[in-house]
Amino acid sequence: MTGNAVISGSWRAKIKNKAQLCVYEFATASGLRSKKNKPFIFYFSFSLQTTVETQSVRLSAQMKKWGERLTKVEQLAQSFRSNPLTARYKPRLWPCQPSSVWNLYPRQSMAIAFAQRCKEAVHVFALEKENSLPGQRIYLVTSYSELWHYYRTYTHSLMHCYEVIPEGTVCKLYFDLEFYKPANKGADGKVMVSRLIRYVCDKLMEIYGITSTTCNVLNLDSSTEEKFSRHLIFNLKNAVFKDNIHVGRFIHAILQPILSTLKGGRSHNSGVNSSEISRAPDISGGKPAKTSESCGNPPTKRHKQEERDLGFLLVKNKDGQDCLFVDLGVYTKNRNFRLYKSSKAGKRTVFAVAEDNTFHAKPEKSRSAEESVFLASLVCNVSFTGQRILTWEVPETTEAKASRPRCQHGSDTNHELYSGGGSSPHQEVDDFVLTLVQKDGIQGSIRRWNYFAAEQLLVYDIVKYRWCENVQRFHKSNNIMIIADLKEEVWYQKCHDPECRNFRSSSYPLPQEICMSYIMAKDEEDQAYLMDEAGNIEPSQTANAAHLGEDSADAWGDSQDDLKYAEILGDFEQNSGEIPDLLQPASNLEFDI
């Protein structure tokens, strides 16, 4: 076709490639002409070719710009991944609630360590599983609201649940009461509970000036045909105890008349169960801080009267020995206290509101009546605002000084800085607070501290340093407080001075090296136990892998050395106050409350 076509000179100049030449030849051979006697197809082809070339140039420019924008977006995405603006999203029960935290640990110490470093308002709970070894527990860290949400749903896996009362945590006054019914057929449990509540209320007024009645006491019942069992939780108005050790001292002191009867063997019943009263330290010489001295050493006549009045607290155990209606062994550090609506493993009787209960929790719009009772039953559910801290001090004896927690500074001078009660659970924060009050030639000190676990606040009462940010000078007589907010990682100052009572200073950041920051996006592999959607608690895959690794390692080890190591470890944990979960089955009696 190319050889037969005759192309004029004017059109030859316009033909730029072989494609156009082929089209021209085809149009000429076919006789296709336009109105101006020009090859029609060539005209169309030429115009189309020009349009395509133009669009191609434009598209190329747009693709180049798009590529540049895509590169910038990828760079920004990489930057945001490396330096996120906010923490990753976590599910919530509802928008007004904090992010979900539900971590399970095989050891209590691990759970407490996580809770202390967690920024969310979380707490530690102990769980028992059916058919597990005696004394073996799993420890859950979560918030009150989230626990209650699942507490109603997973009744099988959460039905044996205990509140862990952390060492040094501000808490409510509480009692564990029980007696064996077959050995005490004439005992009326309800009357005994009522008399005890009235007696304790009288003592609270006498010693601390606090007004209380049975309406302030949540009365929970877990009695069976064989055993009478109650929990009493005092929800006092704006008053709580420094910790459960001080609660134990107070109770031990007000029950001293009947304890003397047991110790001296003066009871008209034969056989005294001395082990029942040896579980709590003898602090009969103790006294409340800043109260009348007569409270610590009552007159002999009054002592005898109280001894007669408290006779109803004497009951018999299964062996026919005399013991107390009040369990004095529940005031130790990190105590596990059974929850409302929970039962012991292997049992079905839960703690429910007693028939003779007169306490009514304050209703709130967002809470059901049952949830309000649950929150009122929690011993450590205490707010910092407006609370009066009750204490019962131990006399300065050689034994008391030896048992007092000390600061790890290695000097007697520094020990005096903590004369109000030793170091707190966060000694690095104690040391920082001391740097705030020991400057400009003034040697301030910490008189005492109080820890509010529910809000993760450490409140320090300061002496010898009275600088107030409100008045911009030192107070003449009134002391100040330093509050460390471990959750927000800030500290601020408040005053005991009446003029500054409602003043709160600006918040200042805690030093980075002492902050309790914890990575909330904790990998599930780090947890020994996980809970599935059905509420079943099972060992995680990592825990199983670790277990297999231990089995394979046993073949290389010496079994005699392993047994010796376990024995030494058990002795160490007993001496340090940590009760092994698996090596101490007998300790189940201490935990099952």
Automatic annotation (TrEMBL):
<dbReference type="GO" id="GO:0000428">
    <property type="term" value="C:DNA-directed RNA polymerase complex"/>
</dbReference>
<dbReference type="GO" id="GO:0003682">
    <property type="term" value="F:chromatin binding"/>
</dbReference>
<protein>
    <recommendedName>
        <fullName>DNA-directed primase/polymerase protein</fullName>
        <ecNumber>2.7.7.102</ecNumber>
        <ecNumber>2.7.7.7</ecNumber>
    </recommendedName>
</protein>
<dbReference type="GO" id="GO:0009411">
    <property type="term" value="P:response to UV"/>
</dbReference>
<dbReference type="GO" id="GO:0005634">
    <property type="term" value="C:nucleus"/>
</dbReference>
<keyword id="KW-0240">DNA-directed RNA polymerase</keyword>
<dbReference type="InterPro" id="IPR044917">
    <property type="entry name" value="PRIMPOL"/>
</dbReference>
<feature type="compositionally biased region" description="Polar residues">
    <location>
        <begin position="267"/>
        <end position="277"/>
    </location>
</feature>
<keyword id="KW-0239">DNA-directed DNA polymerase</keyword>
<keyword id="KW-0804">Transcription</keyword>
<dbReference type="Pfam" id="PF03121">
    <property type="entry name" value="Herpes_UL52"/>
</dbReference>
<dbReference type="GO" id="GO:0006264">
    <property type="term" value="P:mitochondrial DNA replication"/>
</dbReference>
<dbReference type="GO" id="GO:0042276">
    <property type="term" value="P:error-prone translesion synthesis"/>
</dbReference>
<dbReference type="GO" id="GO:0031297">
    <property type="term" value="P:replication fork processing"/>
</dbReference>
<feature type="region of interest" description="Disordered">
    <location>
        <begin position="401"/>
        <end position="424"/>
    </location>
</feature>
<dbReference type="GO" id="GO:0003887">
    <property type="term" value="F:DNA-directed DNA polymerase activity"/>
</dbReference>
<keyword id="KW-0548">Nucleotidyltransferase</keyword>
<dbReference type="GO" id="GO:0005759">
    <property type="term" value="C:mitochondrial matrix"/>
</dbReference>
<keyword id="KW-0808">Transferase</keyword>
<feature type="region of interest" description="Disordered">
    <location>
        <begin position="264"/>
        <end position="304"/>
    </location>
</feature>
<comment type="similarity">
    <text>Belongs to the eukaryotic-type primase small subunit family.</text>
</comment>
